[in-house]
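Researcher: Let's do a round of design. I'm pasting the structure tokens now; please hold your answer until I've finished.
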């Protein structure tokens, strides 16, 4: 029987990336459900101060709601020249205080504006992945290093991918394939670490 797992995000891009990553890494068959699939329509207040806290808030909220082991990520872009901003506010960088998330295009436009004239371009995507279930809960974190360029390049990916240049590919994350992105990305590394821990607890070496 397939094990049910919830991924506590309604971001279709993230859901696809995580499904792909878990398929590669989990040692057993699974069915990945979204919050909508389990009938969760509520808003989760992400009032933690770190990626770790916010991912655990999401994982625990969904697990308490449906009783199905739940994974959640919280991720964002930390730019050195901006003191680590937008950080945990990445999804709502261009929004007024108290408003919800702002569109990707507006967030990247604001980032490019704030980076105009800055010499130090280093940045990293950070991802915390939390897992909540009856017997096991944990949080892992990973980062992907890059540089903020001064214009958008590429049509793939989402969020800040078009302005995030990775030395390894000499391309932005919006110009590489999904497989290439997953091989180095913050989410790729964090999900693979989480999958290893889930395999140790639930795996049956069927694959
Ligand atoms: P979250 O859904 O609260 O974790 O917000 C994450 C935000 O960080 C997204 O809305 C994007 O703006 C940004 N972000 C996280 N991961 C990525 C990525 O892989 N590529 C581009 N932007 C990302």
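Researcher: That's everything. Go ahead.
Model: Designed sequence:
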């Amino acid at each position: 029987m397939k094990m049910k797992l919830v991924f506590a995000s309604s971001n279709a891009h993230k859901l696809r990336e995580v499904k792909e990553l878990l398929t590669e890494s989990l040692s057993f068959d699974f069915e990945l459900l979204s919050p909508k699939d389990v009938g969760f329509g509520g808003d989760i207040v992400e009032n933690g101060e770190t990626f770790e806290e916010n991912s655990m808030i999401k994982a625990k909220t969904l697990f308490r709601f449906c009783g199905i082991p739940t994974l959640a990520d919280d991720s964002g872009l930390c730019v050195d020249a901006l003191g680590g901003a937008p950080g945990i506010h990445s999804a709502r960088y261009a929004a007024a205080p108290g408003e919800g998330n702002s569109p990707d295009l507006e967030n990247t436009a604001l980032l490019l504006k704030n980076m105009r004239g800055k010499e130090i371009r280093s940045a990293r995507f950070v991802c915390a992945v939390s897992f909540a279930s009856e017997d096991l809960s944990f949080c892992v974190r990973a980062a992907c290093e890059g540089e903020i360029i001064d214009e958008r390049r590429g049509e793939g990916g989402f969020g800040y991918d078009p302005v995030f240049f990775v030395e390894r590919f000499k391309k932005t994350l919006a110009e590489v394939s999904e497989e290439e992105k997953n091989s180095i990305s913050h989410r790729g590394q964090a999900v693979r670490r989480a999958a290893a821990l889930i395999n140790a607890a639930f795996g049956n070496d069927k694959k």
